[in-house]
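Thread: quick sanity check before group meeting

JM: Hey all, I'm pulling together slides for Thursday and realized we never actually wrote out the predicted structure for the chain we discussed last week. Dropping the sequence here so it's in one place. If anyone has concerns about the input, flag it before I start.
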Amino acid sequence: MTDDPLPRLPSLLETVLGVGSELELRGTLQRIVDGAAELTGARYAALDTTDPGQDGLAPIRTTGRPAPARQGAGTLDVPILVHGEDFGRLHLAGKRGGGPFTAQDEQVLRVLAVQAGIAIGNARLYETARQRERWIEGAAAVTTALLTGRSAGDALMTVAERARLLADASAGVVLLPTPEGGMEIVAAATHGDPADIVGTTIEPGSAVLEQLLGGEPVFIDDSATDPRMTTHVRHRFGPSMMLPLQAEGRLIGTLALPRRRGDRAYTPVERLLATQFASHAALALVLADAQHGRERLAVYEDRDRIARDLHDLVVQRLFATGMMLESTQRRAGADDDGVHETLGRAVDELQSTVQEVRTAIFALQQPPAEAPVTFRGKVLRETAGAAALLGFPPSTHFLGAVETRVPERVAEQLLTALRRALSAAAGRRGVSRIEVTVDARAMLPDGRAAVRLTVHDDGERTDGTTVTWQSPL
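JM (edit): ok, ran it. Output follows.
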């Protein structure tokens, strides 16, 4: 290749234009390296950044053998400046033909380095704009998802999963404060099974926790070696961000975004955008909770109104009709056996109807909270809800492995029987105590395994009233 730079001018211009046309930062750097090698005839070219963490970049190289020592005639080295700051250095080695690099090679390389600095600055601006756009779109998507009636657990998972994808993290984790003053992981979005992550706690007094409770984000270079990290899962992760979910001056929880060990550190731009996302997500969580509260209040009001109307209108009318029929039955003569029997059946039917309506009223007065997922939880919800009618909570006991032995079909039948029994007890006078027992160790007379429900109250009669229901398993 000639030492005269003019014959290389068209190639230099073409390379400069190619570098300037690339918008993506890594693509820009690769064009710079490839163009430098082509223009100077170097066998090997590399661009090492001064601060790889700033842009999340690994060194950019051409294909070929590793670079030799960077001193002497066989190497060429020029700096790249971006807005007056040192971005990195462009290294060339092994000129084709075996000769040394010339002054003209260095001159061409310096021209390319100046244009590269301009192109890198533009690519940085473009990449920052793209990142900001993605995070803004992600925050908007989270808000939309949270305001469409998701449950509290689903809302937290939505925040965790969306943040994990935006941050290119190994996991997205949401922690909530514990009564003891620590924080517990309640939602985790990961590539694999998050079961051993959920439930992990940060104990009170932790340096990280104190910073988070003060509303400050925590940035960690390596979770596995940072002494502030104390959880049993820390060894899996490397760089991490722990961002307070804070809105209206109240700390809701923490959003943690750890990357795998060995992954690149978070850039300052990524830290800023993630912190802004956490603030936006916290506000969306507060708004969603307020909306959910308004909806629950509307449900409460509707259920109370329906229950009140049923009690004040339907039950009282049925009761009055039953009283009239009983009075007519007593006045019916002994010779009127047919009439006497018909009136008896009518009274029985009305009493049964009253019982069914009371059961419906009782069900309407239960709090429409999140449905328990376990059989034991469903039983406890029914007994706890009865306190609204009784004025006191029933005493509840479980015998045997109720969770594993009672199938879903039988469980639903038992819950229906329990609601009826509790409603009936609420309608009896003098009831001050109720005992509920669910026995999964019961046996039927024919020897089959069974579950038995017993509801005993101390009302009306001397020895109280006991209702028993059982079913084979």
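AS: nice. The radius of gyration is 37 Å. Confidence is low (pLDDT under 50) at residues 63-72.
JM: adding both to the slides.
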